[in-house]
Every structure is written in C-alpha cells, then in structure tokens.
Amino acid sequence: MTRSGTRNGQVTTDRATDGGTADVLADVAIVGGGLVGGTLAVLLANAGFSVILVDRADPAAGLDAGFDGRASAIALATHRVLVAAGLWDHLGPRSSPIRDIRVADAGSLLFLHYDHSLVGDAPFGYMIENRHLRRALYDAQRAARNLTVVAPAGIAALDLDSADARLTLADGRTLGARLIVGADGRTSRTRTWAGIRTTGWDYGQTGIVCTVDHERPHGFVAHEHFLAAGPFAILPIKGETGREQHQSSLVWTERDALAPALMALDDDDFLAELALRFGDFLGSLALVGPRWSYPLSLLVAERATAPRFALAGDALHGMHPIAGQGLNMGLRDVAVLAEVLADAKGLGLDLGSPAVLEDYERGRRFDNSLMLGMTDALNRLFSNAVPPLRLARDLGLGTVNALPELKKLFMRHAMGEVGNLPRLMRGETL
Prior knowledge:
The protein contains eleven helices and 20 strands. It is of the alpha+beta class and 430 residues long.
C-alpha cells in the first residue's frame, strides 16, 4: 500500500548505521521527534533495537525556552517510563512534586481535596516544563548507540507491504524498517497515508498557557477551578533558586470568541483579567515569559495499527487538557508498545507482524477509550453554568470528598496506578 504526499526539508544524519548516504535500515522507524516519539526512540535504542527517528524540525530548535511555554503533569506511574529511559537524572531536579490536588466549582463551598499522604509517601506526580523534557531527550538521543536521527527532514511517501515498510524522504532517500511508528501529532500525515480514519470535534474553546510568579508559595498543590467557560488549572512548577515554590503554570480554558481579545491585552490588563479568575490566595502575580494559546478539540483514530504501522501519542488520540492526561496517555502508549516489541524480539517474531500489532492494539484500546470518554464528559459537565448541572457536580465533588475509600480509589487513578500496567509503569525493565 502506498500513500504519497510532499513536504520540504533537508536531511542530516547524526549517526548513520551504514556510514554513507545509502538507505538506512532499522528495526523500527519513528516519525515524529516530540515528547512521545522521542521517548520511544530512546527506550527502544537502549533496549538493543536499531531505531531511526525522523522529524520535520531541527531538534535543537526545540531547546529554546520560547519554543513552547507549556508544562506537563507527569503521573507517578508514568514518570517511571522516563526513569526507564534514563531521563530522570536530568528531570528530577527540575521538577516539582504534586503532593495535593484541590478541585472546586467556582463560587461553591463544596470541593474535592486529594492529600497524597492518605495513600502513601509518594506524590501524585510531577510538574515539568516541556523545555526540560526536550533537553533531556535531545541529550539522550545523541548518546544512544543504536539510534539514527534524521532531521530536519520532509517525508514524501509511506510504503507498507508484507515484507517491510519504507519512508521516502523529500530528497529521494528511502528509510526501511520492520515497523514504522507514527508519532507525528494530531495532524499526522503518516496516519492519513496508512489509511486510518479519525473521529473528533472542536470544543469551541481555546487553551491559554502562561507562567506566573506569585507572592506566596504554592505548597506543591495543584488547583483546578471550574468556570463557566471551562477549567482553569493552577499547577506548581519549580521556580528559581530560593523561590522554588513561587511559580505556577496556568492552563486557562476560554471560549474561542473571547480568547483572541484576551491574548491581545497588554501584560497589565491581562494580569487584571487573570486575577479575577485566579483569586488572591497566592498573593500578587507577575507574568513570567510570553503567553501561548491553542485550540482545544477531541480526536481519536479508528484504530491504532495498519500493516507494519502503529500510531502513538496525539496521532492516535487528542484529548481535552481538563485532567492533564494528554502526555501521560502518550507515554502509556510508549510503555505498552515498547513491551510488546521487546517480547516479540525475545521470541524471534517479526516486529511488524499482525499478531504483534494486535497485542499493541488490544493493550491500548480500552485505556485510551476510557480516558477520551472521561475527559470529554468532564469538560461537558463542568464547562457550563446550568443550575441543575452545577448542583449535581457540586454534590458529586462533596460526596467523593466525604467518602475516604472512594476518594483513595480516585487518588490512585490520578497517580496512574489503576488498571493492568505495563512493566515500565510498574518500575520493571523491558
């Protein structure tokens, strides 16, 4: 099967396995060098697979602090994937633990408070600025012995057949692999070329992201306030030395019609609008760096695999940030796929065979469907001011908060500890 397209880009190979400009062959080729594809590449290379990582962007460009101002909530179980990839030595000192989570409906006296000490000593997870994740991945990729990085590179065609799979680059070079993984984001070209359809819809919402410095320490507490326009998250990140608890990452969900006007405000007026929603519990606020905005939508691929092809991350599922699960679900994809491939290699199986790919499909189908459904339902339930719904959700928050065993179950879910976890998420090796 062949699907063709065009994309411009030059090719550089950091570590060519054949010592020249001929086609590069590998066990696995990954398209998309973001946080999900990059982590998978490092894990597989460290496990002895030969890996090609192809990306349209120069990896060094993503190291700039202005490239992406987002921070990611990494659940406790998910962080073990980063430990297994050898990234945590860099990330740990730059992360902020999440020790408590407080969820409240705006204007309501009822709330839900998760205290990590009720289920053990470990935090719910960690907040890490994406720039630190990209730096850790960049260094790990350059150190990996079995990894060929091809970037910046455009892809002109994807060829999948029963024998092998091929990527044709914009300059005519071909890259061959037993399996190709599409980790190239929501607008995935490889997904289209593989003939995998998607379902989804826009929420009519925009996510505004920025970092603020605040007068009082955050105490390692993550807050989520539900406003009529959508959730407003205040997430603790690690600030500068001596003020480690005085910065937070904000994810402000606003209606599409209002978001452009908010983004156009000068800093003083933006802070004034921010204070109306933020409140004063952390004292005075100051912006740190620029602001970013992103349209919010749901996207789900009808299946995770095609012949000699698998999807991972946002190319497979794009969800609302209401529960901060986007990257976590992508890294869960990575953990399952890496385990499936490691087991197949140990048994001498063809990495791109239907049986191997079905194991991955089966391992991710329920988990991804559940999380997509949950985040969609939560956003619809909480992004409105309809009185009966407000009453129902407020009573729900208060009820869960008053039932210790139910609350502990929800807390373990927030940690990513619920369900049939792959080995990497249990702290085991491949």
